C-alpha cells in the first residue's frame, strides 16, 4: 500500500476530476510521482481520488495538459481543523483564558482559618502569619514550606507550644496548640469561718487562720470558729481562713406516717389504641371498643414523621391502656415509726451533707391518731458546721 | 536493446536463475482472492471505469473487468486495484485493447 504516512497531520483532500483524457491524467499523476490513493471512477469521464494537501497545487499543470477540471469534495486533516479553529480564535482564546484564570485563581490563598486558640486572639495569630507571608490573596507558590512556616510561627507567637499549618486547596488552616499555663487560684478575700448552728465542737482542724474554739466547746450560731485575723492589735494581717470544724448538732423533727398505704400495681393486661395525628387532631384507627378495666393508666407515645430532624405536623400515636390493681397495705406501728425515722434521717443527709453521722436519736413524743403515727424526734448528729464570713474592715467614723 | 545485450541478458538469466520480470520488464500480477490486484511494471492507464480497467504494458495491454473497481494507489510502475475482479485478459501488441 502506498498511502503516505501521517496523512491526517499533513492534511488531505478528496477531489473529483472530470475530463475526456482521464486515463492520461492518472498516468501523468503517476509519472509525476504524486501520491494519490483510492481512485474511484464515478462515471465515464469522472473519478474521485484522494491526495495530500501539499500536492494539490502541483495538479494545475497536469490538469492544463490533459484538459481536466477538479472539484474539491472533502477536506480532511489537521491543517483544515486549525484553519477552522482560527476562524473562532476568540472562542479558543476564551477557553485558554478561562483555564488560565482558573489556574491563577486556584493558586491563591483565599481563606485562612485559625483553630484551637482559646487565650490567644485569632488576630494576633493572623498578624504573625502575615509577617511570615501567609495572608489572603497571596500566591500559594510564594509560601514557604509548611514545615518551616509552622516552626517560624511557633517561635513568633508567644504562649504556644506548637503551631501547625495545613493547606487544603486554597484555604489554609493554622492549628494552634496553646502552652498550658498552670491555673491561677481563685482570688479570695480574707474571711473567718463561723458556725452555722448551735453546736458542741467535736473536731477542729485549722489549715489557715487562728482557731478560736476547742473540742467540746459549746458554740452559738454565727460564732467565729477559725479567725482570719493574725497578729495582735498593733500588727494585724488578715488571711483567708481555711479548715474544717465538726460539731454535734440537734435537729428536731415532726414526723407523721400513715398506717395504711395505697399501692398501684399493673396487672399486665393492656389494650392498644392507634391514632393517626394530623395537626392537632388525632383520628383513632385501631383499638375501638370499651375498656373494661376498673382503674387504668394510659401511656401514650407520639411518633411524628420527621424530615431531617424536623418534626412534621403529622404522625402516628399509639396508646397503651393498662389495667391497674389498687391494693391497700397496712403496716404495724413499729414499722411506721421505723420508716418515719429513716425518711427523716435521709432528709438530714440531704440538707447537711453526706458526711453527716448520726450520733443518737430520741423520740420525745408519739401518738397514734386517725390511722397515722405522729412523732416528735430529736436527732443528734455530727456535721460540718463551718461557714465563710468575709472580714469587713471597720473604717471608723 | 541490441541483439547482443538481449542474448547476454538471456544467458545471465539462465545462469543465475533470476525471475523474468526483473530483467525483461515483464508485468507481475499478484491477485489476492478476487478483491485486490497488484500489478508491477505497467506502462500507464488507457481506460478506467468502475467496470473496466485497461492498463498499458510493455508489449500489449491488460484488461481487467469486474465491478466496483478502484485504484487504491498508483505509482509510475505499480498499481493496486481494489474491487471485485472477474476477468483478467492479456492483449498482445497489435490486438484489440
TrEMBL record, chain A:
Keywords linked to the UniProt accession: Membrane, Transmembrane, Transmembrane helix
InterPro entries in the record: YqfD (IPR010690)
Tree of life domain: Bacteria
Record field: transmembrane: 90-110
NCBIfam families: spore_yqfD
UniProt name for this protein: Sporulation protein YqfD
Organism placement in taxonomy: Bacteria, Bacillati, Bacillota, Bacilli, Bacillales
TrEMBL record, chain B:
Coiled coil: none
Name recorded for this polypeptide: Sporulation protein YqfC
Amino acid at each position: 500500500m502506498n498511502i503516505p504516512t501521517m496523512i491526517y497531520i499533513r492534511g488531505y483532500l478528496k477531489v473529483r476530476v472530470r475530463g475526456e483524457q482521464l486515463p492520461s491524467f492518472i498516468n501523468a499523476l503517476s509519472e509525476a510521482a504524486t501520491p494519490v490513493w483510492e481512485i474511484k471512477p464515478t462515471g465515464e469521464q469522472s473519478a474521485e481520488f484522494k491526495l495530500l494537501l501539499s500536492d494539490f497545487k502541483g495538479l494545475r499543470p497536469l490538469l492544463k495538459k490533459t484538459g481536466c477540471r477538479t472539484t474539491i469534495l472533502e477536506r480532511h486533516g489537521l491543517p483544515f481543523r486549525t484553519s477552522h479553529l482560527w476562524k473562532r480564535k476568540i472562542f479558543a482564546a476564551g477557553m485558554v483564558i478561562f483555564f488560565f484564570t482558573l489556574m491563577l485563581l486556584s493558586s491563591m490563598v483565599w481563606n485562612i482559618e485559625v483553630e484551637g486558640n482559646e487565650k490567644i486572639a485569632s488576630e494576633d495569630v493572623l498578624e504573625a502569619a502575615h509577617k511570615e507571608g501567609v495572608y489572603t490573596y497571596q500566591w500559594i507558590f510564594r509560601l514557604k514550606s509548611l514545615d518551616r512556616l509552622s516552626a517560624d510561627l511557633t517561635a513568633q507567637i508567644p504562649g504556644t507550644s506548637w503551631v501547625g499549618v495545613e493547606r487544603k486547596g486554597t484555604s489554609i488552616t493554622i492549628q494552634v496548640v496553646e502552652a498550658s499555663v498552670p491555673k491561677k487560684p481563685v482570688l479570695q478575700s480574707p474571711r473567718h469561718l463561723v458556725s452555722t448552728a448551735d453546736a458542741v465542737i467535736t473536731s477542729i482542724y485549722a489549715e489557715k487562720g487562728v482557731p478560736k474554739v476547742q473540742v467540746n466547746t459549746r458554740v452559738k450560731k454565727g460564732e467565729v470558729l477559725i479567725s482570719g485575723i493574725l497578729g495582735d492589735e498593733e500588727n494585724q494581717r488578715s488571711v483567708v481562713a481555711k479548715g474544717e470544724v465538726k460539731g454535734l448538732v440537734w435537729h428536731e423533727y415532726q414526723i407523721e406516717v400513715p398506717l395504711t398505704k395505697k399501692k398501684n400495681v399493673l396487672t399486665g393486661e393492656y389494650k392498644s389504641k392507634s391514632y393517626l395525628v394530623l395537626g392537632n387532631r388525632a383520628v383513632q384507627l385501631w383499638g375501638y371498643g370499651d375498656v373494661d378495666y376498673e382503674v387504668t393508666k394510659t401511656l401514650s407515645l407520639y411518633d411524628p414523621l420527621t424530615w431531617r430532624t424536623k418534626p412534621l405536623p403529622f404522625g402516628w400515636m399509639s396508646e397503651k391502656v393498662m389495667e391497674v390493681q389498687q391494693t391497700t397495705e397496712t403496716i404495724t406501728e413499729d414499722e411506721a415509726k421505723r420508716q418515719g425515722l429513716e425518711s427523716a434521717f435521709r432528709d438530714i443527709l440531704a440538707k447537711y451533707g453526706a458526711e453527716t453521722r448520726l450520733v443518737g436519736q430520741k423520740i420525745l413524743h408519739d401518738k397514734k391518731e386517725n390511722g397515722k403515727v405522729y412523732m416528735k424526734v430529736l436527732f443528734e448528729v455530727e456535721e460540718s458546721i463551718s461557714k465563710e464570713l468575709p472580714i469587713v474592715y471597720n473604717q471608723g467614723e | 536493446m541490441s541483439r547482443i545485450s538481449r542474448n547476454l541478458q538471456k544467458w545471465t538469466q539462465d545462469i543465475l536463475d533470476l525471475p523474468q520480470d526483473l530483467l525483461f520488464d515483464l508485468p507481475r500480477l499478484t491477485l489476492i482472492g478476487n478483491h485486490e490486484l497488484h500489478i508491477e511494471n505497467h506502462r500507464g492507464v488507457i481506460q478506467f471505469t468502475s467496470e473496466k480497467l485497461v492498463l498499458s504494458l510493455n508489449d500489449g495491454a491488460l484488461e481487467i473487468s469486474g465491478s466496483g473497481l478502484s485504484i487504491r494507489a498508483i505509482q509510475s510502475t505499480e498499481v493496486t486495484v481494489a474491487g471485485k475482479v472477474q476477468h483478467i485478459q492479456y492483449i498482445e501488441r497489435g490486438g484489440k485493447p
